[in-house]
Amino acid sequence: MNKQDLENIVRYLVKQAIEAIENNTDEKNLPVDYVAIFSKDEQEFNNLELLVRPLGREIDKKTAKTGFTFLLNDPLKTPAGLVKLIKIRKPDPTRPQRGAPDFRVKKYDDFKSKYLQKSGDFTLMVRKDFEMIELKGVDVLVYFPNKPLGSKYDGKSG
């Protein structure tokens, strides 16, 4: 596995997420904030981790039990903007999808009010310090967090 393979995976995930967003919302040009890659097996997890580790620095160590999150030195280009944050997630049989991109929405509460009521397409996920809305795509889980992880690193709000 090489950097081109990583870029292809990230672009694939973002394209799948954009398709899910376009098919389920009237939102346009939402910026990607973060991409989690779901490793298919232990070997792929190890290969991805070895590939990404020298490309940035590990952050968000509180989630290390599920994988490693990196802030990249050189962001990857995608159809929804630059990806600076990548998580390499450990294999998990409950996550058959290829990955999960997070997108920023300008007015989270408005987005939540508008889409959470749609017929089961969206699910509210409440965590200790934040919440997010999940949308299931073909091969991705798409998330819209009220506190995007990237905002900790660029000073922009969600």
Tell me about this structure.
The protein has 158 residues and is α+β, with helices and mostly antiparallel strands. It has a single domain (3-154), classed as 2,3-Dihydroxybiphenyl 1,2-Dioxygenase, domain 1 (Roll), CATH 3.10.180. It has 4 helices and 8 strands; from the N terminus they run H-E-H-E-E-E-E-H-E-E-E-H. The protein has helices at 3-24, 42-52, 108-115, 151-154; strands spanning 32-38, 56-59, 67-78, 81-89, 99-103, 122-126, 131-136, 141-145. Strands 2-3-4-1-5 form a 5-stranded mixed β-sheet. Strands 6-7-8 form a 3-stranded antiparallel β-sheet, with helices on one face. The radius of gyration is 15 Å and the shape is globular. The mean pLDDT is 92.
Key traits:
single chain, 158 residues, alpha+beta, 2,3-Dihydroxybiphenyl 1,2-Dioxygenase, domain 1, five-stranded mixed sheet, three-stranded antiparallel sheet, globular
Number of helices: 4
CATH architecture: Roll
Instruction: Give a short account of the largest sheet.
Output: 5 strands, mixed
Global outline: globular
* Number of E-state strands: 8
Percentage of residues in helical conformation: 25-40%
CATH superfamily: 2,3-Dihydroxybiphenyl 1,2-Dioxygenase, domain 1
CATH class: Alpha Beta
Low-confidence stretches: none
Widest sheet, order of strands: 2-3-4-1-5
| Whole-number count of domains | 1
Quaternary organization: single chain
- Rounded to an integer in angstroms, the radius of gyration calculated over CA atoms is 15 Å
Q: In whole angstroms, how far apart are the ends?
A: 33 Å
